[in-house]
Automatic annotation (TrEMBL):
Homodimer. It catalyses: orotidine 5'-phosphate + H(+) = UMP + CO2. It holds the Pfam family OMPdecase. The lineage of its organism: Bacteria, Pseudomonadati, Pseudomonadota, Gammaproteobacteria, Alteromonadales. The active site is at residues 60, 62, 65. This is Orotidine 5'-phosphate decarboxylase.
Length: 234
């Protein structure tokens, strides 16, 4: 199992509440993720606040634009010193290659660059409405092939596709899996879900977990329970 596989997704509209939660968490037990909502509200200052608390940060902005624009956006993310950032694989090969090239000048300090395949909130029926008439796993595989060709570090996918992707692309290709739900917790808007121990067992490297922790009555207890469920599995 990867060192520190749990990435807590912070989707808060209130910075004080987010920092209160962060101050309860242990950077030895998890990494953190902020996305479009928090970065739009609180910007690079929040990134600094999180780094000052010694957490690795996944800046999840899912860039998807023309290659030049995405390359500059990814470079700006790298300048913030984040641990991981991402683009949409559907932006295409040239866009992903431009993003990867933009990180060359950052050397060993460059963040991990990951591409989102098919969002975990999407089902086969949702894909059909977009004119994509193949099961989600086939489209994920197609986008992961492009990502691998562009030499990115890995993909965001659902844990349901992890086994297939690990066996196709090998151990070094990182699999970042949201849509993680401990047994008995509410799926919410997620469709392609799996429990934390199952996700690790099928090859996920990082588990992105939001509401099951942040909306729990006791978030620290929820994180600790998930952490322990993974330790006992090893
Ligand atoms: O890139 C992501 O992190 C992501 C990709 C994806 O396919 N599905 C997905 O849910 N996410 C993010 O993962 C987090 C999941 O949060 P919860 O559903 O609350 O556990 C959210 O912050 C989403 O933005």
């Amino acid at each position: 199992m990867t060192d520190k596989p749990i990435v807590v997704a912070l989707d808060y509209d209130n910075k004080a509440d987010a920092l209160t939660l962060i101050d309860k968490l242990d950077p030895a037990m998890c990494r953190l993720k902020i996305g479009k909502e928090m970065f739009t509200l609180f910007g690079p200052t929040l990134v600094k606040d999180i780094h000052n608390r010694n957490f690795d940060l996944f800046l999840d902005l899912k860039f998807h634009d023309i290659p030049n624009t995405v390359a500059k956006a990814v470079s700006a993310a790298a300048d913030l010193g984040v641990w991981m950032t991402n683009v949409h694989a559907s932006g295409g090969l040239a866009m992903m290659q431009a993003a990867k090239n933009a990180l060359k000048s950052h050397g060993k300090d460059a963040p991990l660059l990951i591409a989102v395949t098919v969002l975990t909130s999407m089902s086969d029926e949702d894909l059909a409405l977009l004119g994509i008439n193949v099961p989600a796993f086939e489209h994920v595989l197609r986008l992961a092939k492009l990502t691998h060709q562009a030499e990115l570090d890995g993909v965001v996918c659902s844990a349901q596709e992890a086994k297939l992707l690990k066996s196709t692309f090998g151990e070094d290709f990182k699999l970042v899996t949201p849509g993680i739900r401990p047994a008995g917790s509410d799926a919410g808007d997620q469709h392609r879900i799996m429990t934390p121990p199952q996700a690790i067992a099928v090859g996920s490297d990082y588990l992105v977990i939001g509401r099951p922790i942040t909306k729990a009555v006791d978030p620290l207890a929820a994180l600790t329970a998930i952490h322990q469920s993974l330790q006992t599995q090893v």
